[in-house]
Amino acid sequence: MWVASFLLSAVMLLIVVMPLLPIYDPYGQDLSYGLMAPFEHDGDKFSILGTDFLGRDLLSRLALAGRVSLIIAVSAVFISLVIGVALGLVAGFFRGIAENLIMGFADLQLSIPRVLLLIAVTAVVGSSVLNLTILLGVTSWVSYGRVARAMAMSLREREFVLSAVTQGASPLWNMWKHLLPNVLPQMLIVGSFELGQVITLEASLSYLGLGVQPPLPSWGLMISEGQQYLAINPWMSIFPGLCIFMLVAGVQFLSQRFTKEGDQDLKMATRWSKKPA
Amino acid sequence: MLWFVTRRVLQSVLTVFGVVTAVFFLVRLSGDPAALLMPVEATTEDIARLRTELGLDQPLLVQYLKFLANAAHGDLGQSLRNRTSALGLVIERLPATLELALTAFVLGIALAFAIGLLMRLSSSQKLRTTLLWAAFIRQAIPVFWFGLLLILLFSVTLRWLPSLGRGGIANLILPATTLATYELGLYLRLFNAAMAEEEGQDYVRTAYAKGQSRTKIVLRHMLPNALLPLITIAGINLGVLLGGTVVTETVFSWPGAGRLIVQSVSQRDYPVIVAGVLVISVIFVFVNLMVDLIYGLLDPRVRLS
């Protein structure tokens, strides 16, 4: 557990505390101080982590990029959680046609590799932070949907739900009052598992040039910007990658911890969530 | 068995049909393709002429049926950039992608197999923990950054291997390794879990009681049983691997279908994107079908579910 705490606090320190300190402007270009190495003094200019090809301070950009990446990832997870829970509960509670349709759609979505699906849609709608967030959210609901459906299927047979049904409770009321509170803790665990994946996906898309667009920084984008200068100043690519790694590893540790405490069904659901049934 | 095969084949055909439909409506509903296809300085008349030419002035249903009929004949339109068949362009790049994906697939299984066996056979608990930790850490590293680190180490610093392009074996080593380790962490953890489960079985205890050596028990008795889940997961993940090629090909400038798709996005070459996504999805569906059929052949329970 302390590993996760250490990794996550290091990232939080960078994203939350760093911008409060007097660091350089993340957009401030100065070509005469381009590609400085970490801790390099160049006349009166000193940069802790060095500068990129336009002389922008890497530390400042990493901090801003982290905010961008985390906001996108957390919002996307929230969107997919809402969609997944709604569809999963409907499928598991009503069964029948609704279930076949929803689960068929899930299988269809899983039959296109996720990166490819995102690329295809981005190509059509164009890439912006908002589009990227919505797309990541809309395309990752399946894990939540599957777990929520499985849980709803067993919950609908329980006495408290059945008694509510016999008293004339509407399906909507039942789902909201009785099913949702019971599936929510599990959904948050699935969410913690998905968060790491969404962060990596966002970084991959931005690396491909299809995600966050310059001049706004994102860790994935910074890695691709640095790739051309790998032989001169590899730090441009190393630092952002390290940030992604620390965040994803920290989140993964946390979610593993949660999963261990959650039940067996859930463990199976998250482990197999990648593959079509 | 016949019923199982028929059902799975029909399911796959339906999926491919669904993908084609989804791609068609995605592209059509997102805006006027004619306006996207023409240069910025084109007049309204030019665009209108192109609309008629492409049949975009017809009802959506007619367009959809035409698209289906053309797709069935292998005609997915022409590349906007070099006016050749979009499908032809993708297929031309396919061998490079398959070469990379299959090498990575085999390498990944071989690595998981070797490391997993090492973990089981060695008596050192420390080694086991270290390897599992390494697997966990690898899972948290984005594939493109891992590739970049390999380039930095083996191409820039040591100058042992070329960092980009396709050619001999030397060019293949870095991209294949990058992609092979993509799912290695997952394989390793699964393989380890499967082996640990076999460890507690009665037949293993019997083998010990007979006085068989540890090495022989692991290799002869436990391994065949633990291998099945590993191969299944690897097969299913071949699709994930196909997605991974898109990123890996870009890192190493590997001239495959994935890189073609990414380049086509920045050039707004829609027919090529559509063709690329369709081709890779069809391969993906086909691989899943094969894995399921093989698994159904090996394990009767799957056929009946």
In short:
The complex is a heterodimer of chains A (277) and B (305). With 277 residues, chain A is mainly alpha-helical. Helices cover 70% and strands 2% of the residues of chain A.
Class inferred from helices and paired strands of chain A: mainly alpha
How many DSSP E strands of chain B? 0
Radius of gyration of chain B: 24 Å
Number of helices of chain B: 14
Helix content of chain B: over 70%
For this structure, the quaternary state is: heterodimer
C-alpha Rg of chain A (nearest Å):
22 Å
Biggest sheet strand line-up of chain A: 1-2
Distance between the termini of chain A: 33 Å
What does this 3D model show about the protein?
The complex is a heterodimer of chains A (277) and B (305). Chain A has one domain (65-266): MetI-like (MetI-like fold). Chain A has eleven helices and two strands; from the N terminus they run H-E-E-H-H-H-H-H-H-H-H-H-H. Chain A has helices at 2-17, 58-94, 96-110, 114-125, 129-139, 142-155, 159-166, 171-207, 219-227, 235-261, 264-271; strands at 40-42, 45-47. With 305 residues, chain B is mainly alpha-helical. Chain B has a domain at 93-269: MetI-like (MetI-like fold, Orthogonal Bundle). Chain B is 79% helix and 0% strand. In chain B, helix 5 (86-121) packs across helix 9 and helix 5 packs across helix 13. The longest helix of chain B is centred in the last third of the chain and has 38 residues, at 214-251. Chain B starts with a helix and ends with a helix. The interface between A and B is large, with 41 and 50 residues.
